[in-house]
Automatic annotation (TrEMBL):
Xref: InterPro entries: SNase_OB-fold_sf, Staphylococal_nuclease_OB-fold
Organism whose genome encodes this protein: Candidatus Spechtbacteria bacterium SB0662_bin_43
Organism lineage: Bacteria, Candidatus Spechtiibacteriota
Pfam families membership: SNase
Domain TNase-like: 73-209
Protein name, entry field: Nuclease
């Protein structure tokens, strides 16, 4: 009996040495590799994050233009369009540099992926504000082909300016958009593209919820 027990123990130890120990070692190596990759990722991300913080700071530096001014909010149309009062007239405003998925309307029967969420996000950002500060971009003209004002939209909260356009891209509710008919890029495009890179990299908002937020990105 004692001999049989000894043989069984030897077999078990041999099995552990041959099969189990390599698996444990592989797991240890894998864990070590994951730690190294995570460290490398953080080191590689640090310069990008630093640039992103700079871009965010640049985006909230409100340009001094003759057309800039406060306007009362009337309605949020969708994720990238709002209505405001200009004098005694309700005027639509198209946010410069961004595009959001469409929502159902008279010309579209269904919502696009993350369209309702983008609108809700814009409503949330503006809900505590009666008015917004609109700033034009000399490179983009005053209005688009639908006679909507082309503007950066700013709100002032917690003692600092917030560029609503940039924030929507940064948080993954919109993607950077340069209008194909305009040969001149808008002034903040490098900063918006960096914000989109960040949102895509970290799979924020629509980048995690939608298979293809923008057709051109998937072609």
């Amino acid at each position: 009996m004692r001999t049989s027990t000894l043989i069984a123990s030897c077999v078990f130890l041999s099995f552990g040495t041959i099969f189990v120990l390599p698996l444990l070692m592989r797991g240890a190596v894998s864990s070590s590799n994951d730690s190294v990759l995570l460290k490398q990722h953080k080191e590689q991300s640090a310069p990008v994050f630093s640039e992103l913080q700079h871009a965010k700071q640049q985006s909230i530096t409100v340009p001094d233009t003759a057309s800039a001014g406060w306007h009362t909010i009337v309605d949020v149309v969708d994720g990238d369009t709002i209505d405001v009062m200009v004098g005694d007239t309700v005027q639509s405003v198209r946010l410069i540099g961004i595009n959001t998925p469409e929502i159902a309307n008279l010309y579209r029967f269904e919502d696009e992926c993350f369209g309702p969420e983008a609108k809700e996000r814009l409503e949330y950002m503006l809900q505590e504000h009666d008015s917004v500060f609109l700033v034009s971009d000399a490179s983009q003209g005053d209005v688009d082909i639908y006679d909507r004002l082309l503007r950066y939209v700013y709100v002032y909260q917690e003692e600092e300016w917030v560029n609503v356009n940039f924030s929507l891209v940064y948080d993954g509710y919109a993607y950077e958009y340069t209008h194909y008919q305009n040969p001149y890029p808008y002034q903040l495009r490098p900063h918006f593209r960096l914000a989109e890179y960040y949102a895509r990299h970290w799979v924020r908002g629509l980048w995690g919820a939608c298979y293809c937020p923008q057709t051109i990105l998937c072609s």
